[in-house]
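worker-03 picked up job from queue 'complexes'. Input manifest follows; four sequence lines, order preserved.
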Amino acid sequence: MPKKKLSEAVPGGGPGGSGATSYDVAELAGVSQSAVSRAFRTGASIAPKTREKIMRAAKQLGYQPNAFARGLITRRTNLVAVVISNLTNLYYPEVLAELTQRLSAQGHRVLLFSLASESEIDEMLGLIWPYRVDGAIIAARLKDDQIRQFNDRGIPIILYNRVGEGEPAASVCCDSASGERELVRNLLAAGHRRFGIIAGPQDSYVGEERLDSARRHLAAAGIEPFIYRGGFDYHSGDEGLRALMEASGGALDAVIATNDAMALGAMDCARGVYDLAIPQQLSIVGFDGVGPATWGGYQLTTIRQPVRRMAEAAVDMLIERIEQPGMIPEQRLFGGELLPGRSARLG
Amino acid sequence: MPKKKLSEAVPGGGPGGSGATSYDVAELAGVSQSAVSRAFRTGASIAPKTREKIMRAAKQLGYQPNAFARGLITRRTNLVAVVISNLTNLYYPEVLAELTQRLSAQGHRVLLFSLASESEIDEMLGLIWPYRVDGAIIAARLKDDQIRQFNDRGIPIILYNRVGEGEPAASVCCDSASGERELVRNLLAAGHRRFGIIAGPQDSYVGEERLDSARRHLAAAGIEPFIYRGGFDYHSGDEGLRALMEASGGALDAVIATNDAMALGAMDCARGVYDLAIPQQLSIVGFDGVGPATWGGYQLTTIRQPVRRMAEAAVDMLIERIEQPGMIPEQRLFGGELLPGRSARLG
DNA sequence: GCCGGATTTGACTTCGGATGCAACAAGAAT
DNA sequence: ATTCTTGTTGCATCCGAAGTCAAATCCGGC
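worker-03 finished. Artifact:
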């Protein structure tokens, strides 16, 4: 009769049920629990014949090592927290899909957190700590002391399209400044002179980068654009265009929206409300290169972020830092690709 | 001098570091580890004064109970697996956002799995088991034996817009049949007679439901529609419309797409390629009620799924089953709302 | 058949928090 | 003051896998 630690009659009732432990497998295979444990770790010292025998028993019992027990002793949970502020944004689902698949492929599970508002971050951090995640990828605005909490706990993080302000943090970003410069340069070259900008909320890092870059390069050409502040959503594009038309007395050549969703809203408004031909009477550009931007009805002129490469970099950098703690907080900047589209006349 | 189990010098180095355990807190507060444990469980037998003292010590050390240790002993992980086949679909991000927020609010964390293809499901299940999730919400096509694996392990699941075929399973669905019937009835009442259907892939449950319903109700009026099979994405709408125009010799009154993305693709194609006025020359309807469907350029006539209510139901049903195992596999069907839009003439 | 080195193996301990139980304290009842 | 409640507390143990270390086994070579 075995000593103990054998699982009781299976709760689920069925054979090959749920509760099998390494002790159950050990008994069935006629080996010790240690052997079972070793059979499931690559590189462990175990005879091939023994491992095979154990694997057969494990399969018969439907045994899978308990990640909680394993995580407790190894201090590696294989969990990565992914924090995304606003999932209903058109851009993030694509990012999330890429991150999830790549992390999965590397043996990590995704613990997803989404925020209804940025103020919930502190609360959310309190939900992350108990799970002892191996690392985190964060597409939300972290304050310095929040970054520091990760650093203090030794949890590597990668900021996505954000940077640490005071506290150093590794990050992956799309180069907003040069992307926006490209757009402005082309618009100027095509002869546009009266600009409106539909900007994002002030608490968005990339939003402000794009806005600053656009203003700076327009200023260099002696142009002062009209500016409207929206919320990065489609509706803000509509409202933004109305506001700009009013502010400029209808005399606009070009509208720069700091993301695609707003650019699309502005296009629909320009056509539907003001009956303007795009790009003949008004050029509109966006930023991101989301799916709908390429749709036939829009063919938006925009900067496409290299999402796949960025996600790949974020995951690779994170895993490097998990494997080898204490690396320097590197920042990687990716250039965007100009999608010419048909919503703007470019030079 | 305390016996043992006190964490060593903090790895992170800083004070209030990461590795604090209940033993550390116990020592600082001058109580036993049991007391610390009880302080963090509501309803446990502990004096308010003691708890307060412990909480103060815990805060000072930055202590948070280790979810892995807790989960190991309680057999409750507070993890819920959310499986979504195709995140880049326009519809699912909204669902995911709702599910995540509601689960969070109920004290559950989301372990996210996304699939590049449905064939990966078995592989993915192997990644779920080790984490001993309390339950799962699944928006992917599960085969009966896959559902049975959950049942055998006693893990409650809720299928989202899917049903179990042989194996019983709780599910939350939007009523495809009556939504589609509503659309067809209105289109018929407005005098449409030559129909095309842009359907989804055959392995989609809701896709087939919608297709069947549309065909049945058209057949009842003696109408045999042209049918094209697409992949539920925007591009399929474009291809679908071209195929239908060709098949029908250009003589179409109405196009029924079984989701919005394809309907939008068809609209752009109808306008851009065939120069048709919508809805005057061609009516197009979709299904889902995704964000872009309401955009000014489209104003798609469609059926909006009550995503919030459905997500709420899914979460509530799941939690019921977690708290109280062995409930009957209930199926909940939600009616969709007809968004009249402007892409179809309705009767 | 015996020996030395390499490989395998199992007993035991560990991770960190939860909990049954007995010990204990504080107040109530007698 | 004594006994009985009621309410707190600590001890010891458990959850399930991983890793340490010493014992056991294997193997070719003599």
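worker-03 released lock.
Chain B has three domains: 1-65, 74-174+307-337, 176-304.
Chain B touches chain A through 62 residues (CB under 8 Å).
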